[in-house]
Design goal:
The structure is a homodimer.
Chain A (H helix, E strand, L loop, with lengths): L25 H9 L36 E5 L5 E3 L1 H5 L4 E8 L22 E10 H8 L7 E12 L2 E10 H4 L7 E6 L2 E2 L9 E3 L12 E7 L6 H5 L2 E2 L8 E2 L6 E4 L4 E2 L6 E3 L2 E10 L5 E7 L7 E2 L1 E3 L9 E9 L2 E11 L22 E7 L13
Parallel strand pairs in A: 1-10, 15-22
Antiparallel strand pairs in A: 1-2, 3-4, 4-7, 5-6, 5-10, 7-8, 7-9, 11-12, 13-16, 14-15, 16-20, 17-18, 17-21, 19-20, 21-22
InterPro entries (chains A, B): Ig_E-set, MoCF_OxRdtse_dimer, Mopterin_OxRdtase_euk, OxRdtase_Mopterin-bd_dom, OxRdtase_Mopterin-bd_sf
Protein name (chains A, B): Sulfite oxidase
Organism (chains A, B): Streptomyces omiyaensis
Amino acid sequence: MDPSPGGLGAVSGPARLAGPDEGLSAQELALATRNHGLPLEALRYDVTPPGLHYVLVHYDIPDTAPDTWRLTVGGRVLRPLDLDLPGLRARPAVTRRVTLECAGNGRALLGPRPVSQPWLVEAVGTAEWTGVPLAALLAEAGPAEDAVEAVFTGADHGVERGVEQDYRRSLPLATAADPAREVLVAYAMNGAPLPPQHGSPLRLVVPGWYGMAHVKWLREVTLTATPYTGFQQTAAYRLRQEPGDEGEPVTLIAPRALMAPPGFPDFMSRARVVRPGPVPLTGRAWSGHGPVVRVEVSEDGGAAWTDAELVRDPAHPWAWAAWRTTWTATPGLRHLAVRATDATGRVQPLAPPWNRGGFANNLVQRVEVLCAPAPTAPPRPPAA
Amino acid sequence: MDPSPGGLGAVSGPARLAGPDEGLSAQELALATRNHGLPLEALRYDVTPPGLHYVLVHYDIPDTAPDTWRLTVGGRVLRPLDLDLPGLRARPAVTRRVTLECAGNGRALLGPRPVSQPWLVEAVGTAEWTGVPLAALLAEAGPAEDAVEAVFTGADHGVERGVEQDYRRSLPLATAADPAREVLVAYAMNGAPLPPQHGSPLRLVVPGWYGMAHVKWLREVTLTATPYTGFQQTAAYRLRQEPGDEGEPVTLIAPRALMAPPGFPDFMSRARVVRPGPVPLTGRAWSGHGPVVRVEVSEDGGAAWTDAELVRDPAHPWAWAAWRTTWTATPGLRHLAVRATDATGRVQPLAPPWNRGGFANNLVQRVEVLCAPAPTAPPRPPAA
């Protein structure tokens, strides 16, 4: 069966895996040049400044008009809502610091490599999101007795594997309406209106879930009496070994620790250079399944591990924790690694967990560091 | 000769060209995931919102402290300056709208491909920069009679092809001190303090020049009696056919027009889909050599060209111009192209101008568009 009505198959192919020696394709590069990760030195900021937070946009950033924007809450509800931005801003607001990670983070480290947005480890960021609790809006609308899911529709429109669509995802109603999950309809990021690429003027924020659930440019919430089976729910974002598998849905963020690479980089290889002696190592760690309870660092590529100091801020349970330790560097090429364990006992793996979509690969981060003495002559200043 | 004192060659190799069938390497991908281009739909904004403007950082974004930041103006001057931010902000300020483009834009479209940051066409952005005219600071410091260049030093530190360095570039004094060139020491972007990735707290802005001249995290201006011959001036950013060539320096931005791709995209191929009938085509065009005087659009991949309407804003001579036209789309796979001509007669080429560094490749942009009728059934909304 041709899945592409209107001949969309000419520009919209099926999912595929890269060949054994296939370098990154022009199509993957086109995605990598528009979307971007967190430069890892930006792990230094508790809250990621705009422009450094990762961005993944499926289609185009839509040309939205905040002044005329409407959010509807309908479907299986008793009192449908039709809200504008002033109406949302007039409701009680909360601000939550949330670490957000793309479900495809780590994909480009897999072999064979699923061909899609080619993230290494940097598709993450932490922001302060301000908005109205979704639970409050749903209580106002009054879910019908038979409602089981909330379906969220964004304004971004495109084609994917031959299927033309608005971006659309669902949550179980039990999650969407749970005050403890703190799902937000957010209109501000770090105290300012949402930037275009983060969903202006409204987006969903689902603490603890991978990014695909945080629907941007949100215009419609629809409660349904049956589970939603659209493209982004059942074709994409499933953990599959074979194309025909039903697959498990991608949901909560797997634990991950990242290191702010120490020293200074080589431009091209991004390998690091440090001087011999004590080197502070710092970074962040997070999990959507529960608090991170342990971060370990390896100085020998993952053979031996020692605990780092972990600093969690109880005021921000949905945000990454900080970690730090000191490494005594000795001359030579070194291979650092870091891994997180969360309160549910989940530990980052040393071998990547493979699936056809390249989702949730929380393989430990490895950082190549050359420890070299300082040059005997310092870098030459310009001759005056 | 080993160019890498301290053994830096272990992580810092020489420049190279990709092999004939070599896909993008892991190192190029690591650059592409940290740096990012302008998503082309963001050409719709006269001034690019933060986070959508292109970013290219050679080393790490440094951890700067605006409160203690100093800018020195020294070397061959009569009255050396040592300025803090309040001191700079107390001086007469100007705001200029400037289009900034990376010298490596277009590199990944070259064959053979120089291995470096792999831009396609999107390494551009336009911002409103506020700061102190460099000409005023230089007049205050008083250039010595023998001064010929101004050397600018940033706070970003790293290794490149075995050479450890702070990022450093020079301008001829005649350019740096020319009030008409309007070189700025900028402390604000779009009305807000500079974001970390754009040079917080200070950067140079050199209207009309490629990005390598706009030194970020600026901490030192040094006037010299001889031309500066450091790495970024004489090893990098030269137009060379062979490794040993002296090469021409990269300076002013070559003309380029870009189209905001019409219709909507396929997620993976980024090809566009439009409906049959009139389709508005819009975009931007710029040149560092002079005003853009003509933009032409081709509907047949570059065989025939027709003029687009060009809208220049005389209030913003350093910023891109807007252009627009209407295309009557008919069903099938179409290949659009656009090209700019500037007042000096420079026209974008149909074949890429190749050099070993991959600089200034202003090859015309080509956009693949599938014109397809609307599906007979609209996209299915969620069943309530």
